[in-house]
Amino acid sequence: MAERKTKPTPVDPVWDRIRDDAETAVIAEPLIGGMVHSSVLHHQTLEQALAYRFAQKLSSQDVSPQLMREIADAAYTDDKSLGRAARADLMAVYERDPACHSLLQPLLFFKGFQAVQAYRVGHWLWTHNRRDLAYLIQARVSEVFGIDIHPAARIGQGLMIDHAHSIVIGETAVVGNNVSMLHSVTLGGTGKEDDDRHPKIGDGVLIGAGAKVLGNIRVGNCSRIAAGSVVLEEVPPCKTVAGVPARIVGEAGCDQPALSMDQILNGCPGE
Hints:
single chain, 2 domains, UDP N-Acetylglucosamine Acyltransferase, domain 1, 5-stranded parallel β-sheet, 14% strand, 271 residues, serine acetyltransferase, domain 1
């Protein structure tokens, strides 16, 4: 009788590290063992864990955890890019946030990461013409996390939102890959026109706390927006802008400001 072949287990280093972190966390603090087991160790994949966490955080009297879980499971099953984006976002938080000491932390505790993953499910609903449900997800994210991301906005991979309070990203906004932003950032419009009215943020951009980028303008790749700035005009690539209204005050200071997270205007460490 021929030997039956078994399907190989897919290699997933990110998920393996999360499970290792989870087992270590349970040993270190048994009181959170139930949460860690239900949120991580009971699942076979990161996508399953993300769907469970999505349901636990965003369910309400209007929509049960079971229904929320089914919505997220359908999204992750249909669109594999959601899982890839989640892994990139996890690594972005781990590598750029000095307060993050394990890959488990964003999954369980960091509202910026959790809100972005919920937005991604909402965006999937939006692109599948299930817009009322997408709006419901947007509303729940705003209520639970204090972050308002329109489900029609387009956001790339490797996004890190530090602290993540009072973030607003409008309907026609576009955010590139490997972007970092801090709390109270607004990517907004400048009027009530119903057209392409929100900013387009390039790859590798660093947006400081409280910055407002308004209108259908482009912020070039690897540029830096200083904290508290109000940006009303396009920003060339690899520049630093600051002020109200924002003006170019110098070069970006390094090749990848979003990765270095350096917000001092005289450049990045080692320059």
